[in-house]
């Protein structure tokens, strides 16, 4: 959901819009600073994030490699703030024993972990091009 990370991983920076995934929850993970998303059977949770538009198959392959075997890309429906519906992909976390049942905090990540995350993955926070 961060442009500089997406661009570094995918090799492109497509247009994007904010969108909401209903019936999904973004969890904190044991020992990790990044989140894991899972379907929410209660129907009460939502994830607000970025919907990247017109992503090429080459970029999707790069994203799949980056996410690795801890995640599986699955199709979902999302809704933008203006009510438009899209079919999208989300990376579903596959290791439920490592889920902490509290929500992952975007603000905490941005304040405490983002800089280290982008350094670890070779991304500078001010990069706009590859």
TrEMBL record:
Gene3D superfamilies associated with the record: Gamma-glutamyl cyclotransferase-like
Protein name: Putative gamma-glutamylcyclotransferase
Entries under InterPro entries matching the protein: AIG2-like, AIG2-like_dom, GGCT-like, GGCT-like_sf
Residue ranges of every copy of the Gamma-glutamylcyclotransferase AIG2-like domain listed in the record: 13-99
Organism: Orrella daihaiensis
Keywords assigned: Transferase
């Amino acid at each position: 959901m961060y442009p500089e990370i997406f661009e570094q991983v995918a090799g492109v920076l497509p247009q994007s819009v904010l969108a909401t995934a209903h019936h999904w929850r973004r969890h904190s993970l044991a020992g990790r600073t990044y989140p894991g998303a899972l379907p929410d059977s209660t129907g009460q949770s939502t994830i607000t994030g970025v919907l990247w538009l017109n992503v090429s198959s080459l970029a999707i392959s790069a994203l799949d490699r980056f996410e690795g075997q801890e995640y599986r890309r699955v199709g979902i429906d999302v809704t933008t703030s203006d009510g438009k519906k899209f079919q999208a992909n989300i990376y579903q976390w596959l290791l439920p024993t490592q889920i902490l049942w509290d929500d992952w905090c975007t603000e905490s990540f941005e304040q405490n972990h983002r800089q280290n995350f982008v350094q670890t993955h070779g991304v500078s926070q001010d990069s706009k091009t590859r």
